[in-house]
Structure formats: C-alpha cells, structure tokens
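Q: I have 196 residues here and want to know how they pack in 3D. Can you give me a structure?
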Amino acid sequence: MNDNVKVVRVNEPTTAPRSKDPRQGHQERKDPKPAHRDRVVIDTRAWSRGVADPGLDLTNPEVQLKCVQELRDVPDSSAAWIPVLRSHLQQKIAGYKYQDVLKTRWTPQGFVDLDDVLALLCDCQLACFYCRAPTSVLYKEVRDPRQWTLERINNDLGHVRGNVQIACLTCNLRRRTLYHERYILTKQMVKVNKLA
C-alpha cells in the first residue's frame, strides 16, 4: 500500500438525494426545529450568584410592584436585585429607542427614560392600560403575553413622554392601529346577563 494516501472523511450532506421520479419535486430533508428557548431574565448568572433573596418570589406581581417602587424611590438602595432590574428595564427602553430610530420617529427630546418608565409602572400599579390585567416586569419567555410593554397611543409618534402607556403584550399587539379609546371600550366591556 501507498503510505502517501490520506483518508479524508466528508460529512454527510444535510439534504436528501434528489428523486429520479420527475413527478416528485425536489424534496430536502428538513432538520427539526430547535427547541423553544426561554429568554432567561430571572435566572441569570447574577441571580445564581446569590443576588436573589430566597424569600423573594419575583414571579408574584405584588412583589414585582414593590421592587419597581423601591427602584423608583430609592435608586441607590443596597438591595442586590436592583442592578438586575435596572439593567432589564434599560435594555427594554433601548429596544424601544431602536424601534423609533428604524422608523425615523426617534427624537432625543421627550424620549422616555428609566425614570419615566418607573413612574408609569408605579402609577398604573403594573396593570394593563386596556384590559387591567396585571403585567409582569420580570419574565422568562420572550413573547410572554403578560409582559409589560410601552404602548404608543398615537402610532405616528415615537415612544415619547405623554404618548405612552403600560400595556400587556397581548393588548399591544392586538390593538395595532385601532383608535385607542375604541379598543379600551372593547377590552373593558362587561357582559350583563339578565335574570328572568
């Protein structure tokens, strides 16, 4: 045998071979969808390093409201969870700024900042502007329907002071461009059953 021969292994192709039957179209082997991944907000490395208080249930809306109020009232608090909550809120605000920049709606004057968002969250008591259901400040899933969002009342303007309210993701996505007062009526309408 020749010692100069190298054996090279080639990875198998990701597509199935084409069928010789012309009636069957080119069919590729599809890889299975990747498993749904949660966006980890509460269980970050900071939390695993002991930041989270074992007695603090951050999935509870009342506890989340107290945390938001403390962040607003005592921003220099020594509570270990403050930097994580502040970072999460600032990341979300940066996302809204990016949205406005892409749609050429961003203006530096009047754009909401962390203090504005904290005030809105506290004023509404973490309740959705439309359905009045409690919203979550900290959540795991990226598309959690109960997560808080900044809803623009006038969709022609950006996320500026006076044009935003706190809404759950479900209401924010369902309203789209419907006039906000009409959407409030549909969400807060109460069905009355008469007893005969």
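Q: Anything worth noting?
A: Residues 153 and 192 are 29 Å apart (CA to CA). Residues 45-188 form a domain with the Herpes Virus-1 fold (CATH 3.30.40).
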